[in-house]
Amino acid sequence: MKKVLLLSASPRKGGNSDILCDEFMRGAVEAGNKAEKIFLREKNINYCTGCGTCSFLGKPCPQKDDMAKILDKLIEADVIVMATPVYFYTMDAQMKTLIDRCCSRYTEMKEKEFYFIVTAAVDSIAQMERTVEGLRGFTVCLDSSRERGVIYGAGVWQAGEIKDKPAMQEAYDAGRNV
């Protein structure tokens, strides 16, 4: 059994990337894994202020928000799923803010498996790659992290449009194969 942590950065509950998270989670749970989804919109995560308390002084981040608990979960997880809609050909602000706040403990995030879920109105997967590269920019900084898959939800704009797309089955299958 693996601990699977899904980070849903969709600003819309029931948005397309959030729906794909649910499918991934359904597959992971059916395969006997423990899974938890964090809906970032519901969390209070402040921006990194660059104060240096974590990096220069080696102390915990002084901000009092939900990030400390999320960091604990990221460190405990075996598998991390990062799901974001594409905004102007990159990840949305919710995901970027979370990534930036990992600064204080990213060296503790070792030997993780990563899956990326990206959704966009554009039909071109090639145009969605910039978003995936941004997510990879985070994971390359983590010791022994491994990318296990990318699920592209292309050509979806309105919430729920993903439901009749192949990405639904891909997300479920990826979860089953964690």
Secondary structural class: alpha/beta
- Mean pLDDT across all residues, rounded? 96
Oligomer state equals: single chain
How does the overall form come out from the CA principal axes? globular
Relative strand content: 15-25%
Specify the biggest β-sheet.
6 strands, mixed
Uncertain segments are none
Order of secondary-structure elements: EHEHEEHEHEH
Number of helical segments with 4 or more residues: 5
- The residue fraction in helices comes out at 25-40%
Summarize the structure.
With 178 residues, the chain is α/β, with parallel strands linked by helices. It has helices spanning 16-30, 67-76, 93-101, 125-139, 166-176; strands at residues 3-8, 34-39, 79-87, 90-91, 113-120, 146-154.
Polypeptide structure, described:
By secondary structure, the protein is α/β, with parallel strands linked by helices. It contains five helices and six strands. It has helices at 16-30, 67-76, 93-101, 125-139, 166-176, and strands at 3-8, 34-39, 79-87, 90-91, 113-120, 146-154. Strands 1, 2, 3, 4, 5 and 6 form a six-stranded mixed beta sheet that branches. α1 packs parallel to α5 (166-176). It is globular and about 50 Å long.
Secondary structure elements and pairings:
Elements: E1 3-8, H1 16-30, E2 34-39, H2 67-76, E3 79-87, E4 90-91, H3 93-101, E5 113-120, H4 125-139, E6 146-154, H5 166-176
Parallel strand pairs: 1-2, 1-3, 3-5, 5-6
Antiparallel strand pairs: 3-4
Helix pairs in contact: 1-5
